[in-house]
Amino acid sequence: MIPTEVAETLPELVPFARAVQARRPDDGTWCEAWTVRDVLIHQTGNAEELARVLEAFLAGTPVETRGFDREAPYHRLSDADLWSAFLRNCAHLNDIAAAAARDLSPDTEITWTGRTVTAPFFAEHMREELILHRWDLTGDDRTAVRALDEPWMTEHSVISVGRPLLARGRAELRLAPDERLEARLRTPGTDDIVLTADADTAGIRLAAPDGPATIESDAATRLLLLWGRRPADPSRWHSAAGPETLRRVRTLLSGY
């Protein structure tokens, strides 16, 4: 049973929970090499870490964000205990997000994974994780596509998450000092997502459409591509950029 106040803060929690419960823990998912149980472990750790960092800031004792080794204790839990931990951590994140909304200015800067974000980021980021990883469980069903299509999902990914999406992929490209990659992911009627990378840095931003698109798609598909995923139906995106350019763009987007 998910409390009403938690479902209001995290409206994507109930659809995600139903998707988990409709499958066996050892079923495979669209997230390569992850089972349903692996996805749930990841989400349990996400909820814990988002709450931990925000709670510490509220207490006046800021902490650094931990890596994904934070998930290790959850691997040792039974399926039933893992499910309980997941719901408990989501409820705790709801409580901390409510306290932050009450006690902090919305533009208060808080350190998260080497950059600064604002207090509303923490619940919003959990919402994005619930949408994205529900797609890992269900693929392109109507609920997943509708949620991925929401403009705030694109804004959160580009503006609030930003460069960490590209860091590992940029390293894997191994660009020479004089090489530079630029790509435009376009959804008609919206700003382009512009990706750039060179030997030292990577960037991501929203910009007005200009010139040819590297990849054109609907908004939901663009979001999946941005997070290193592919829709089940390949006709949902198209490109005239050529296979080598697409390979490089896919590598850039493969690391988060």
Protein model, in words:
With about 260 residues, this protein is α+β, with helices and mostly antiparallel strands. The chain has two domains: about 5-140, Four Helix Bundle (Hemerythrin (Met), subunit A) (Up-down Bundle), CATH 1.20.120.450; about 165-255, SCP2 sterol-binding domain (Nonspecific Lipid-transfer Protein, Chain A, 2-Layer Sandwich). Helix content is about 50%, strand content about 15%. It has eleven helices and seven strands. The protein has helices at about 5-10, 15-20, 35-60, 70-75, 80-105, 120-140, 140-150, 150-160, 165-175, 220-225, 245-250; strands at about 110, 115-120, 180-185, 190-200, 200-205, 215, 235-240. The strands form two sheets. The chain has a five-stranded mixed beta sheet with strand order 5-4-3-6-7. Strands 1-2 form a two-stranded antiparallel ribbon. Helix 3 (about 35-60) runs antiparallel to helix 6. The longest helix has 25 residues, at about 80-105. The protein is globular. The two termini are about 30 Å apart. InterPro entries: DinB/YfiT-like (IPR034660), MDMPI_metal-binding (IPR024344). It comes from Streptomyces griseofuscus.
Strand content: 5-15%
Q: What is the CATH class name of the largest domain?
A: Mainly Alpha
The string of secondary-structure elements, in order, is HHHHHEEHHHHEEEEHEH
Question: What's the CATH H-level superfamily name of the largest domain?
Answer: dinb family like domain
Q: What separation lies between the terminal Cα atoms? A: 32 Å
Number of separate helices: 11
- The appropriate CATH architecture of the largest domain is Up-down Bundle
State mean pLDDT (0 to 100 scale): 96
Please identify the structural class as seen in this structure: alpha+beta
CATH topology of the largest domain: Four Helix Bundle (Hemerythrin (Met), subunit A)
Radius of gyration, rounded?
A: 19 Å
Into how many domains do the coordinates divide?
2
Poorly predicted runs = none
